[in-house]
Amino acid sequence: MFVLPLVTLIACVLLLTAGGAGSFTWTAGLAACLLAAVAMTVIRGRHVFPISRKQNKALPGVDMSVMIALVLITLTVLPLSLKMSAMSGPGFFQQNQAVDKAVTQAAELDLAEPFQPRYCYSRNRIGTQRIAIILVLAFLSASLSAHFSVKQKESYLLFLAFLGSALAVSGILSLTRFPQGDTLWWRIPIKHGLPGPVACFVNRNYFAGCMTILSASTGGLLWHSCVHRRWGHALISAISLALMGSGLVMALSRGAIIAYAAAATFFLVLLFLRRQLITAIVLLIVVIASCTMVMRSAEHDTRERLQSLKDPLQTASAKSRVNMWTDAIGIWSAHPTAGVGMDGFRMIYPQHRTTSRSGFASHAENIYVQVLCETGLIGVTLIFLLSIAIIRLLRSPSIDHAATRPFLPASAAAVIAAGAHSMFDSPLLIPMNAMLTASILGLSLSIEEGISKPAHVSTRPYTVTYASVIALIFGLLCIPMHRTDSIRFCRTASAEQLVRALPAAPSSWMHWYYLGRQACLTRTPAGRKFGEHCISRAAELDPNNYKIWRELGILRLRLDNHAGAATAFRRVRELGRHWVNLPAVPGYDYETTPEKGDNGT
Fold first, then answer.
1. Helix (H, G, I), strand (E, B) or coil at 408
2. If I label 258, which of 1, 112, 121, 183 is the partner at 20 to 30 A Cα–Cα?
3. What is the CATH class of 492-574?
4. Where are the domains of the chain?
């Protein structure tokens, strides 16, 4: 029983590693179910992380903060009838009304079977359920790792060092000798994407994010091993750090490199303050050697990309991210209190973006900005309370500080690495990365067997029970769940599938647009009229997408709606796309004078 949490956590990490780091939704759902089953067996106290009687009870603890967050997320995905969905506010209610009308029309045109649509507050029901799974994975992972003994903590960190080394070697081979193409692990086929998969990750940026987290935990193992003079573990840690540092740099993720540097700086400062000069020098040599080796063996384009870190704000990538973050503030301004629902950014962002270069962005490339947009002030307040609760817990006499203190550096470094990388990307939206970060943090919140709990604590595990229920319900839903909120789904889906998916994402230009195209394929006057309505709705939800306006204008021209066609073409010109060839509209002039230097941004 005492080794069950460790074995389960390792098994779930390996499951996600083998299954695309959680990119296949069913693997994250299965891992959540396994963790839930073991957590219900192992954890018996109401509070997984109890606080002292002397501490202020006005502020919620870790358990209560997580409980409140999970309850609020559950409320945002409750399926409601159209009338009850009016509680979401007038803006969201109007979107739901438009969907309800479209579902009825689609049934009349035999594009889909009649059904009664249900709506929720979140603008991306499927995405919110997916994020709930990730949060449950993180909480249950931290809960189980908090029950490790000291020896089990050391074993877990050693396991993560070996895992990081294996991933790093696989990544290096993938980036140099044996490209994976459109596969994971050279075996599992996935859809084509850029810049391409690395090891078990669909994107090299996600791979680099995992390397930063595992490097941080391995740095903590190196520190712990040197302090206790376990030179075998120290040697393994040093080799692992060199491999992971090399793989991380070769992945060319500048945000991950900055996060790696932040975690390494933390360790160096800590070691110098503790007067562990030899360990600090070894760590510094490992970091410099791995970076130098990669730079010397890298091609010219690679060195040029890495040298751009000298002035990162001047890169095209940084400028586009800053523009996205600025536009995202408009989302929060429109929905300041409760946001648009977890993972709803991808659905709402097109309405607020100021560029016409791209119509799709799955993430804000900044966790903090995305959380503000998707959860509003309520979510920011909960995160603040959770952070305060963790700090209070670290100082609580309920925690066995003698057992947790040696692992604080690993936990702190992992949080620093993940937090720094989250400023430039979305590493914690990857189930495996979130699970690893939370489990490493849980090592410093340890409650070993035999540690007495406060007398007022009951035996009803409220938070763990609720998290387990969420894991089982959403986890089982994840097994048949398709990514119906992705643009790839919309491109290949039938009209029936798009109509069924539309109530779960009423604000999605993608679903409206591709449903309109499917309707036009019927080649009937009623079908084309409905298709024109759907594509018009897509243009309203993504007003800066010139391609939608161009297609809408052509469709209106075929329907002899000359005034509407001219309006659509005029919008294309207003977006600065003067080089796009557009057909003439009889009796209407839609041309505008291009401004000097206008490039459509």
1. helix
2. 183
3. mainly alpha
4. 80-119, 151-310+404-420, 492-574
